[in-house]
Amino acid sequence: MQSLKQHFQVPYSYEVFFTERLFAPENRVFADFVQNFGNPSFRKKILFVLDKGITDIQTELTAEIVNYFQHHSPADLAPEILVLPGGEVCKNDPRFYEEVIRALDEHGIDRHSFVACIGGGAFLDMAGYAAAISHRGVKFIRIPTTVLSQNDSGVGVKNSVNYLGKKNFLGTFAPPVAVFNDYSFLESLGERDWRSGIAEAVKVSLIKDISFFTWLESTADAMNQRDKSVMIEQIYRCASLHMQHIASGDPFELGSARPLDFGHWAAHKLEYLSDFKIRHGEAVAIGIALDSVYSHLIGHLTKEDVDRIIHLLKKLGFAIFHPALAENDKINLTNGLNEFREHLGGQLTITLLEQVGKGVEVHEMDFDLIKKSVDYLEQIA
Amino acid sequence: MQSLKQHFQVPYSYEVFFTERLFAPENRVFADFVQNFGNPSFRKKILFVLDKGITDIQTELTAEIVNYFQHHSPADLAPEILVLPGGEVCKNDPRFYEEVIRALDEHGIDRHSFVACIGGGAFLDMAGYAAAISHRGVKFIRIPTTVLSQNDSGVGVKNSVNYLGKKNFLGTFAPPVAVFNDYSFLESLGERDWRSGIAEAVKVSLIKDISFFTWLESTADAMNQRDKSVMIEQIYRCASLHMQHIASGDPFELGSARPLDFGHWAAHKLEYLSDFKIRHGEAVAIGIALDSVYSHLIGHLTKEDVDRIIHLLKKLGFAIFHPALAENDKINLTNGLNEFREHLGGQLTITLLEQVGKGVEVHEMDFDLIKKSVDYLEQIA
């Protein structure tokens, strides 16, 4: 008897809208999307889930959403607007995602209805996970509120929570149905959060697009002065490169395709070693500096290019060294590589730089050269 | 500023192998698959999760698997072979899927490693869910051990567990990497389980393939006498139609495409009303009878065709009526339709029959005609 062979493709589409004051009554972008999604004649339901870090600052946000839906009514707004704590803590305790599931069940959110989530990257990860596993996936709308989530994680296809102390252990690949990047959420960001997300733009420019890197060099001063149009263009270009990478490769990482993880092996370890006091973007900046120096030491990158990269990171206000990198370095950095290897599923693949704008993959790293890179960063920090 | 539009397709492939005595040392089907999957030079890990309902009967199964891997060694067998209770109970309590997650974490099963699950449909649902949410999906191999899971659910793309008393509330769409339909597991099935799964074959033949229906009529006696080749061919043809339906439509039901749910609205309710004492296939047989009579009453199906369908169901040993159908019928059946509407996301879509071999969708059902159909079935039962 022959075997039966199954093959099919699942198509995914979503749009990332750039806007300001998303729920101002005169802004129709959100209402038009919800109204026209799927079958326009079919009445939809929508549940909002909000990051408390946002509602603490924008105390009128809940009222604005209610008012917006009274004005436009593109869908039946659930009578409850759920507000939960954001940040990494919301991924650690199952009670938070269970609370999202409780609310979407209680308000009859089915596979043709929406959960709209407003918050930072960790919060979107958590609520996105709840939406993805309920009814095998309800429609999820992301409204990211940080630079990092607007230019990187919020436009991607992943969600996750931590489990038994293991970061991102539970999760799925589940694209959103739409993303709304609202600049006005960024205005209230503190200095560190404003800067932190730019590290992902530096990263993607280094492995993908030299013209974007040059543009980042030329706009660094304006960025530091919180120039709005520069920040928006940075997010747009970074998000675009990130999305192209997803679409052109293996979006759900079913094979051995690598995510955009230049600078990330050391960053992951550093976040952990600092007990998450270092923000992700800050750790990535150090990881970029480290892997750039290493790329030079193995002959892939010129000294001039390393200087150029470190100059840009410093100009943007990033530290390029952290004391934790040099403490117990043999154990910590070797463990960092091993954990990254496990994370990848057994075979180590590290993206380094061949030149500015072009990444290259290697499958091993030499500890002595890593150590030499760390020492160099400590000297010039 | 323009929006960014994302579009990509995710390809899925898997093969359903038909075999016997899968872990007999001379049977290379399983070893060859594992060895050649993905990168053949890459050493993989595999964790087995077994339905206690099977190991209670096949007491040597664990030893056979260990012996098989000593013989062939296509992957590193996890030192633990996990045995958990099967049946609907395993989907009710989160401790069971958490136990699968615990084991796959403990044994280092990553996204390039396998969880192989041996069991009935509910057990595969539960373990498949655990595999799908761990590391955003580890490779899952299904080895279904019942007629129903070999010809229907086991070759499909879904997993699920129950949550807070709601059936299949949590789950994902996650195709397996392979399915092994081993006939020898069917030999120990009792009368009711042998028969029960055949209802899905009758169902799919009625809405898709008249020649398969005719074949089922011609082989019913042999099937009742537990003819092996007839059972294998039935499973092959039913699985094939089911897989074609998935691949030709909207595999992950992202739009409003309907699953193969002829006869299922009443079946779901009946299972619940009988406190799951009626097996799924037995309930589906009654649901098929009900919706066939109803299809006739609204003028879609001739009386001769209804007789022919009911004759086949009876010949196969199915009851076509259950007293629970007639109790509180107004409330129960109306609720049944409403629950099915909710399950579909607001718009009711019921598949009925236009003729034998051809389904037709309707968006409402008339209670008086349902009642008339129930009365008719009670009379001729």
Description of the molecule:
The first copy, chain A, has about 375 residues and is of the alpha/beta class. The first copy, chain A, is about 50% helix and about 15% strand. Chain A is built from 16 helices and eleven strands. In chain A, the strands form three sheets. In chain A, strands 1, 2, 3, 4, 5, 6 and 9 form a seven-stranded parallel beta sheet that branches. A two-stranded antiparallel ribbon of chain A has the order 7-8. Chains A and B meet through β1, β8, α11 and α15 of A and β1, β7, α11 and α15 of B.
In short:
The structure is a homodimer of 381-residue chains. Chain A has 381 residues and is of the alpha/beta class.
Task: Please tally the helical runs of chain A, counting DSSP H or I stretches of 4 or more residues.
Answer: 16
Cα radius of gyration of chain A in angstroms: 21 Å
- Give the biggest beta sheet of chain A: 7 strands, parallel
For this entry, what is the oligomeric state of its chains? homodimer
The number of E-state strands of chain A comes to 11
- Give the overall shape of chain A, derived from the CA principal axes: globular
Under CATH, the topology of the largest domain in chain A can be stated as: Dehydroquinate synthase-like, alpha domain
CATH homolog superfamily of the largest domain in chain A? Dehydroquinate synthase-like - alpha domain
Pair with the biggest interface? A-B, 66 and 66 residues
Q: How many domain units of chain A? A: 2
- List unreliable stretches of 5+ residues of chain A: none
N/C terminus separation of chain A: 68 Å
Helix and strand content put the structural class of chain A at alpha/beta
Beta-strand percent range of chain A: 15-25%
Name the helix and strand elements of chain A from N-terminus to C-terminus, one letter apiece. Answer: EHEHHEEHHEHEHEEEHHHHHHHHEEH
CATH architecture of the largest domain in chain A: Up-down Bundle
